[in-house]
C-alpha cells in the first residue's frame, strides 16, 4: 500500500506542477495576444460566454498557477502530511484554489442556458466538483492541521485534477485549429490531438476519486480508527529492572559483566544437548582469568523439582557466587529456580526465542502438575543476546520457539493489567517475529532474519514479564506439565485456538494484532493460521504423544481454577478447543 501511495503522490505532484505552469502560460498568452480569445470564441455558441471565460481565466489562472505549484512543492517535501512544515502557505494555496473554482462555477452558471451541453456543461460539472474538493481539503487542513488520514491526500489529488480542468477550459483540445501564437504556444503542452480533451480527461479521472477514496479508507480504516481521540483506560506500569546486552559477538562481554558485578566464580548451566556451548563459555571465561565453579548440564523442560534438587546439591559442592545459564527455557528456568532459592545473581544467554529470560516468572513441575509463581527476585539480572548462538538453532525449533514468544505478546494485549507501553512492544515484537520467522525457514543462515527474530523475542519476553497471562498460558502449562508435551510446540499449536476462544471479548486487541500479522486481511486468527502454514510446523498435539482420552482430563484441569481471562472459562468450549488442538484442525472463530 505504501508503494501505491507513493506513486499516487508522485502523479499528483507532477500534475500540480504541470497545471501551474500551464495556467501561467495561458495567462501570459492571453495578455500578449488578443487573437487567442477570438479563436477560442469561435468554438462556443455564445461569444459573450467564451470571452467571459477568457477574462476569468486571466484573473484566476494566476491563482491556479501559484496555488498548484506551491501546494505541489509543499507536498513533495512532506508527502503524507505527518508534520506541517508550511501550514499557512498550504492553507493559502487551497484557499486560492477555492476562489479559482468559484470564478469558474459562477462563469458557467451565469451562461448555462447559452452553451452546448457536451462542451461547457462538462466544464461546469468539473468546476463544481473540484471546488467542493478544494473546500473539503481546505477545511481538513485548517480545522485538523495534524490530520494523517489519506482522505487529505485524495482531496489534494482532486485539486490537481480540478485545476487541470480549469486550465484546459480555455481551448477544447480536439477543436484547436492551430498552435496558438505567442512565446508559449499551447498546443505542444497538451495531449496528442487524437486523445480526449484535457477537461474531459480530468472529468473522467475526477469521477474515480470517490472510488479511490473508498478503497484507501477501507484499507486504512483501522489506522484511522486508532488515531481518533477517546478516553484512555486507566493503567499502571512497572518497568522490570534488568540489563540487556544485544549484538553479534556480545558473548565476549561476559567476563566484563561478571567483573563489573564484583563476582569471579560462576556456575554454568546447560541441557545435555548444549554441553559444547557451555564448554565454549568456560573457554571465554578462562581466557579472561575467570575460573568457572563448575558446569551442570542436566537442565530439563518444565523444570521438574527433582532436577532442581539435583542441581542444588551440585551447587552446594562448589563455591559459586553467580549462575550463568545458556540455552532456552529449560536452562533459564533452572537458573531461575536456583537463583530464587539461593539469592545468587543470574546471567542468561538465550539461544532460542522463548523469552523466559525477560520474566520474573518461574514454572515448576511436581507430581505431574506444573505450577507458576511470580516474584521480582526471579528476574535474571543480565541478559546477553548474541545472534551467533542462534545461527545453529534448528529451523523447526526456531519456528516453534518464535511462535511461543508471539504468544506472550498476544496475551499481553488483553491482559487484566495491560497498558499502552506493553501493547506497543507487543505489536512490534509480533511484527518482527512474523516477518523474520518465514525467512529463517527459507534461509536458516540469514543473520539479519536471526537478529530480527531475536529482537522480537526480547520484546515479547518483556511483555510476558510485565503482564498477567490468561487462557493460552494456563492451557499450555496444563498440557505440558500434565502430559509431558514439549513446551514451544504446545504453545505453537494452542495459540490460534486460544485466541479464537477469546476473540468475541477482545475486538480491539484482535484489530491491533491483525496489523502485525501478514496475510491476516483484518482477521488475527487467520493471520496466525497463515503464519503457521508458512512455518510448516506440526499442528496436532497427538503428534507429540497426547492421547484422545486425555482431552477430558485436560479440560477438567483447565477449568478447575478460574483465573483472569477476557471471556469466562466454560468447560464445553474449552474441551472443544483442546480437541481441535489435539486433532490438528485450523483455528476457527466459532467456539
What is the topological layout?
Blueprint: H1 2-32, H2 34-41, H3 47-77, H4 87-110, H5 117-143, H6 150-169, H7 198-227, E1 243-246, H8 254-260, E2 266-269, H9 275-287, E3 294-296, H10 305-316, E4 322-327, H11 329-342, E5 345-350, E6 361-366, E7 369-374, E8 382-385, H12 395-412, H13 420-442, H14 447-466, H15 471-483, H16 487-502, H17 507-516, H18 524-535, H19 550-559, H20 571-583
Parallel strand pairs: 1-8, 2-3, 2-4, 4-5, 5-8
Antiparallel strand pairs: 6-7
Describe the fold and architecture.
By secondary structure, the chain is of the alpha/beta class. It contains 20 helices and 8 strands. A 6-stranded parallel β-sheet has the order 1-8-5-4-2-3, sandwiched between helices. Helix 13 (420-442) packs antiparallel against helix 14. The longest helix is centred in the N-terminal third of the chain and has 31 residues, at 2-32. It is globular. The model is unreliable at 80-86, 113-122 and 145-228 (pLDDT under 50).
Descriptive terms for the model:
Dehydroquinate synthase-like, alpha domain; six-stranded parallel sheet; Rossmann fold; 591 residues; single chain; 3 domains
Amino acid at each position: 500500500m505504501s508503494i501505491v501511495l507513493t506513486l499516487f503522490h508522485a502523479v499528483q505532484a507532477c500534475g500540480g506542477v504541470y497545471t501551474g505552469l500551464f495556467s501561467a502560460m495561458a495567462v501570459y498568452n492571453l495578455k500578449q495576444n488578443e487573437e487567442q480569445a477570438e479563436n477560442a470564441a469561435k468554438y462556443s455558441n455564445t461569444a459573450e460566454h467564451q470571452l467571459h471565460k477568457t477574462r476569468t481565466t486571466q484573473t484566476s489562472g494566476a491563482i491556479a498557477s501559484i496555488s498548484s505549484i506551491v501546494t505541489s512543492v509543499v507536498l513533495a517535501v512532506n508527502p503524507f502530511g505527518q508534520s506541517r512544515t508550511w501550514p499557512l502557505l498550504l492553507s493559502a494555496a487551497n484557499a486560492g484554489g477555492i476562489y479559482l473554482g468559484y470564478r469558474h462555477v459562477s462563469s458557467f452558471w451565469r451562461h448555462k442556458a447559452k452553451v452546448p451541453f457536451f462542451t461547457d456543461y462538462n466544464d461546469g460539472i468539473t468546476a463544481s466538483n473540484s471546488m467542493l474538493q478544494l473546500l473539503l481539503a481546505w477545511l481538513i487542513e485548517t480545522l485538523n492541521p495534524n490530520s494523517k488520514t489519506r482522505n487529505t491526500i485524495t482531496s489534494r489529488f482532486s485539486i490537481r485534477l480540478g485545476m487541470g480542468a480549469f486550465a484546459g477550459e480555455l481551448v477544447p483540445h480536439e477543436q484547436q485549429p492551430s498552435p496558438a501564437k505567442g512565446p508559449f504556444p499551447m498546443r505542444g503542452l497538451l495531449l496528442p490531438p487524437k486523445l480526449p480533451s484535457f477537461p474531459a480527461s480530468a472529468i473522467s479521472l475526477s469521477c474515480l476519486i470517490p472510488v479511490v477514496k473508498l478503497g484507501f479508507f477501507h484499507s486504512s480504516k483501522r489506522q484511522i480508527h486508532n488515531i481518533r481521540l477517546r478516553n484512555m483506560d486507566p493503567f499502571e506500569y512497572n518497568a522490570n529492572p534488568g540489563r540487556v546486552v544485544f549484538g553479534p559477538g556480545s558473548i565476549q562481554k561476559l567476563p566484563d559483566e561478571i567483573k563489573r558485578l564484583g563476582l569471579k566464580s560462576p556456575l554454568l548451566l546447560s541441557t545435555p544437548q548444549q554441553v559444547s556451548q557451555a564448554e565454549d563459555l568456560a573457554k571465554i571465561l578462562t581466557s579472561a582469568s575467570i575460573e568457572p565453579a563448575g558446569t551442570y548440564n542436566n537442565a530439563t523442560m518444565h523444570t521438574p523439582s527433582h532436577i532442581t534438587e539435583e542441581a542444588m546439591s551440585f551447587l552446594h559442592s562448589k563455591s559459586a557466587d553467580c549462575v550463568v545459564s545458556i540455552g532456552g527455557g529449560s536452562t533459564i528456568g533452572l537458573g531461575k529456580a536456583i537463583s530464587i532459592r539461593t539469592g545468587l545473581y543470574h546471567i542468561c544467554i538465550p539461544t532460542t526465542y522463548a523469552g523466559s529470560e525477560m520474566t520474573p516468572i518461574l514454572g515448576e513441575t511436581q507430581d505431574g502438575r506444573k505450577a507458576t509463581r511470580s516474584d521480582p527476585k526471579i528476574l535474571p539480572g543480565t541478559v546477553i543476546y548474541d545472534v551467533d548462538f542462534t545461527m545453529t538453532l534448528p529451523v523447526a525449533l526456531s519456528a516453534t520457539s518464535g511462535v511461543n514468544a508471539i504468544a506472550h505478546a498476544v496475551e499481553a494485549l488483553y491482559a487484566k493489567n495491560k497498558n499502552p507501553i506493553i501493547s506497543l512492544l507487543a505489536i512490534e515484537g509480533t511484527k518482527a517475529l512474523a516477518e523474520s520467522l518465514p525467512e529463517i525457514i527459507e534461509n536458516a543462515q540469514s543473520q539479519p532474519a536471526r537478529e530480527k527474530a531475536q529482537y522480537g523475542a526480547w520484546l515479547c519476553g518483556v511483555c510476558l514479564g510485565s503482564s498477567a497471562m490468561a487462557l493460552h498460558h494456563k492451557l499450555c502449562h496444563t498440557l505440558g506439565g500434565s502430559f509431558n508435551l514439549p513446551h514451544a510446540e504446545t504453545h505453537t499449536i494452542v495459540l490460534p485456538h486460544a485466541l479464537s476462544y477469546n476473540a468475541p471479548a477482545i475486538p480491539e486487541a484482535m484489530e491491533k494484532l491483525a496489523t502485525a500479522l501478514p496475510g491476516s486481511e483484518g482477521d488475527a486468527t487467520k493471520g496466525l493460521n497463515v503464519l503457521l502454514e508458512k512455518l510448516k510446523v506440526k499442528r496436532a498435539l497427538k503428534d507429540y504423544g497426547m492421547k484422545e482420552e486425555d482431552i477430558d482430563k485436560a479440560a477438567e484441569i483447565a477449568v478447575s481454577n478460574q483465573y483472569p481471562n477476557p471471556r469466562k472459562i466454560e468447560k464445553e468450549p474449552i474441551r472443544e478447543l483442546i480437541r481441535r488442538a489435539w486433532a490438528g484442525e485450523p483455528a476457527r472463530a466459532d467456539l
